[in-house]
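Morning. Coffee machine broken again, so started the prediction first thing and wrote up yesterday's gels while waiting. Chain of 247 residues, entered below exactly as on the submission form.
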Amino acid sequence: MEEKVVSFQDVVFSYNAVPVLKDVSFSIKGKSFVSIVGPNGGGKTTLLKLMLGLLRPLAGAVTVFGLSPEKARSFVGYMPQYVQFDPHFPVTVFDVVLMGCLRKGMGPGPYGKKDKAVCLDTLRKLEMCDARNRSFGDLSGGQRQRVLVARALATEPRLLLLDEPTSNVDIAVETELFELLHDLSKDITVVVVSHDLGFVSQYVEHVVCVNQRVFVHPTTAITGEMINELYGAHLRMVRHEYLKRGD
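Came back before lunch.
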């Protein structure tokens, strides 16, 4: 039987009596790569926060690995949309990734050998190990994004949630990051919020379209009419093609 990693059943949510999600029911299977798309204010980030247990539905139920989101947090890695930091604060790349190992009940003192080994291995996978002793503030935008993904992976999650992970990076960096996430989805479930449906469509298997209500479509089933209905305007989906150097 196919594992349901995330399940929403008749979920309703509002901010200060303003409806955000209405009667939302859908599920996400294990070891898949899914994108959440929709207009600003449509409820994309709210879906992620409900999965994390940072918000609770007014009605309906959300489960993650068959548990409440609060109880499932140890299985989930999360990269938020905005990360504020002082570029002059003396924190290294390795320090940032180690932050992903912080957990409830962790006592004072240094990180353990296992935590450090996991973080080093994660940095290797993201091709950032050589930069582990560099200042985080000295990195390029694309390098910072890789380090933040590594921080989310430091918990060795079974579900990875990323909110706009490619904001403020160029098309080359975006391509490299989505190829990395596509590879990760062979072992874990990856859910990414994105505005660029035309770009993510070449990587993800299913698209969760959200604008108060939610509909899930296979990527191949997305049409111009669906996009127009989702965004409430006449839009065209453009597929970006990027050739690596030497191709």
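The two ends are 41 Å apart (CA to CA). Going to sketch it on the whiteboard this afternoon.
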